[in-house]
Amino acid sequence: MMSASKASRLGEEIWKTRIDKVNSELVVLTYGTIVAQLCKDFDSDYVEVNKQLDKMGYNIGLRLIEDYLAKSNTMRRCANFRETAEMIAKVGFKIFLNITPTITNWTSDSKQFSLVFDENPLADFVELPDDGRAQDELWFSNILCGVLRGALEMVQMQVEAHFISDVLRGNDTTEMRISLIRYIDDELPPEDD
Amino acid sequence: MVIYSFYIFDRHTECIYSKLWLPPSAAAAAAPATPATANIVTGDGAGSVTLAPRGGPHNTDRRSVKVKASDDAKLIFGTVFSLRNMVRKLGGDDDAFISYRTGQYKLHYYETASSLRFVMLTDTTTLSMRSVLHQIYINLWVEYVVKNPLAPVEHKGGDGVKNELFELGLDQFVRGLM
Amino acid sequence: MSYYFAIIGTQDNPLFEYEFGTSKQGGDGQAHFNDQARHLNQFVLHSSLDIVEEVQWTNGQSYLKAIDKFFNNYISCFITGSNVKLLLLHQPPSSPGGGASGLGAAASTRSSTSIAANPTSPQTEEAVKNFFTEAYENYVKATMSPFYRANMEIRNPVFRARVVAAGRKYL
Hints:
The structure holds 3 protein chains of 3 kinds. Chain B is α+β, with helices and mostly antiparallel strands. Helices cover 38% and strands 18% of the residues of chain B. Chain B contains 4 helices and 7 strands. A 5-stranded antiparallel β-sheet of chain B has the order 2-1-7-6-5. By secondary structure, chain C is of the alpha+beta class. Chain C has a 5-stranded antiparallel β-sheet. In chain C, 37% of the residues are buried. Mean pLDDT of chain C is 83; it is low at 96-110. Chains in contact: A-B, A-C. Chain A: Belongs to the TRAPP small subunits family. BET3 subfamily. Chain A: It comes from Lasiosphaeria miniovina.
């Protein structure tokens, strides 16, 4: 099993050597525009916007995992869900967003944990609309939940991910909760007649 | 080193890409027909596979060739899938099935964590092609197929795999090895 | 000693306004406009926009310094590349010593050299420039929010807090 510090080093190394960098403001403004446009398109139905963001993230995750595997040179699976969490936080988030969220609040069965984001590059400059609802309903960075769901599905883990707090809403922290639902079995080839 | 053929199987066990490389002599003989009509001939049900490309003008029944090729792919997948499962059962989950060899050819296998399976058939003297398959995955598959925004995520029926960059890159890479 | 700060959009529409007083030399940071002046300030600022439009083409600078004067009100302007104007109305104490009568002559001499009492001095120009620069930086950040549209009123409380801080720091 890969130790936490080894995962950090791996993330750091990939970030330094194998990642093409892009202007962060370009990313922030692009993502912000997408969210704002969704809010407009769905008439500020924030529940629906959250859903759409999650869906977009899911489709990104399905592809992004391949890039992750290629860049991290992963040749074997994580031994358990705790190791998976380490790799998500210290390698995945590191190489794609250059942040390392803190892993915390494990349940005793090691099937649920939280990622606490000390910084969130997607949310720089963002001020939620003050229509009295966005603060309670919109999860601005919800795309990240979808990304994790999609990426983990490709490596045979069905998970559920959602935000439970966000500094944009005035909470003290930005926290995402991730629960492992099940490991997905290999698909079997169809029986030949 | 001679490389005979190459296959990619997705997580739904479907063959989403296959390519055959003919030895120069057979290719010349098959020149009037398109190279794609060449295929691997499987023997009887005992699973012995002979790799004599059935080149030559006498083989013109493309439909049966196509069926044959897809049968081959299914057979190969069945074989590597069973072997991989057996390997894991005996050697533990971290053990990996890498290759097997017959009197005629050697089959190399590489599986990604996302359940993509890469298979390559070469002559018997070839050393491990695992790193080659890994290179194909990270340098060609991820770059040209996964990162192509127009390609679908799931490649049902090989959809979106056969783009020019991937085909060209693969052909160059493999020919560079031979 | 009072200031009135406003941001004017490209359609000459107000985006943001804030009244404050000096925090230097024992100032309480409160604006001391009377009710009538409050309403007047908006007109004064608005009428100075004509002058801004004349001056803005005469030099390539963003900071146009004090561009207008209306009785005892001095107006400084900072214009952004996107033609948004940051305007500061600056009202020194109407009669020297009048505002600080309780503190005696010593206080009034000291305040006579202060930024607040000398709207045209180089130090004041510099202080106002610093204030504008900081306000502009924060304005840019506020408008980078994806939910902000051009020429929309800035209601962001964080932005307001930062302008308040800049006012306290420089003026």
